[in-house]
Amino acid sequence: MRTQRVLHGEGKVSLAYWERVSNSQANTSPYSAGIAWVAGQPAPLVEAKIPLIDQGFSHGDSTYDVISLWNGKIFRLDDHISRLEESCSRIRLQLPLTKRDLIQTLDDMARLSLLQGAHVQIVVTRGT
């Protein structure tokens, strides 16, 4: 049965999945399970914290964008940042970094994580 073969790793989708699992298990970066940018510094995702009184957390006063990371490179980053800037402008949020600094920060985070495939979520909140 085709479904059984895919579940056992013989299908293309499943093979690609198991290859990503194998690569992530071989990744020795402290950020391999995820990386966050907190107070101007990279942090393992499991250690990232935001205050309970953050307006984005308590009132949903935030905007976000999700980008794909393929082969260690962020897909169409400039387009995504432009869209994020537009979203921030519409709800009168200020990006905490310039576009250039944000692109550099995201590139640095991708490099530090050693991940080859991932989803990158950028969240901008009004803060506390």
From TrEMBL:
Pfam families: Aminotran_4. InterPro entries: Aminotrans_IV, Aminotransferase-like, BCAT-like_N. One of its GO terms (molecular function) is catalytic activity. Gene3D superfamilies: 3.30.470.10. This is Uncharacterized protein. It comes from Metarhizium acridum (strain CQMa 102).
